[in-house]
Amino acid sequence: MSIGDRKSERDCFLTLLSFKVMLRASEAAELRWSDLSLENGLLEVRIRRAKNDQEGLGRSSFIDCAESSTLGLLIQRLRLQARSEFVFTNLNNSMKLTSSAVSKITREAMEKAGIQDARHHDLRRSSANALQGQGMDIDQIRRRGRWKSQKGLARYLVDRPEAQGLKSVERAEPESEAGEAEEFSSALIDHDYL
Question: What is the spatial order of strands in the sheet that 36-39 belongs to?
């Protein structure tokens, strides 16, 4: 990420927040600054309406987020520069991004991080698997990702020994999606991905 480059900062923030909160592209496009609350190391992201929220009641997802972390600093910096109530906007006219624009931006960011043929929705899948690999309970993952049922979440998860209570095992096989997610997150934060 190039500090001071509005596009670079917006794109990094969009990709990181989408990964951490398991945002659908449509949810990211509709986010308003008033939907983000960062207090005492806890970030609440209010999703006003999700695809499985037919009654429009909205849901909140919570993540740990130190104000001094990359994500915390981006929230503070971009909020100060905001020219719109929407979090993710076109840099030329400050209009909110469409779902397809969100998807294009995150796909390009992932390509720059070395992840080919990825889609925005892969951030959701990778995050769920990373959380499972870190030992988070399936129901906690379901609630954070705003899945209506465990059945809906189940198709996103990869069978892994760690998910079944076994210690991490050295394998000669390719890395799991959780490993790729951890590498991706590191690439976003530690490397010049843009």
Answer: 36-39, 42-47, 59-64
Q: Look at the pTM and tell me if it is higher than 0.70.
A: yes
What are the pLDDT digits (tens) for 74-131?
999 999 988 999 999 999 999 999 999 999 999 998 888 888 888 998 898 888 888 8
Asked if 95 and 34 count as a contact pair (C-beta separation under 8 A), the reply is: no
Write out the residue range of the structural domain in which residue 77 sits.
Answer: 6-190
Residue 1 lies in a domain: no
Residue 179 belongs to some domain of the structure? yes
Question: If you ran DSSP here, which 8-state letter would residue 84 be given?
Answer: S
Sign of CA dihedral 111, 109, 21, 92: negative
Phi, psi of 93 (to 5 degrees): -125, 5
CATH number of the CATH domain containing 89: 1.10.443.10
From CA 53, how far away is CA 48, in angstroms rounded? 9
Give the number of other CB atoms < 10 A from CB of residue 152. 13
Q: Is residue 106 part of a domain?
A: yes
Handedness of CA 65, 119, 179, 158 (dihedral sign): positive
Asked if residue 133 is part of any domain, the answer here is: yes
Q: How far is CA 28 from CA 91, 155, 162, 184, in A?
A: 16, 22, 30, 19
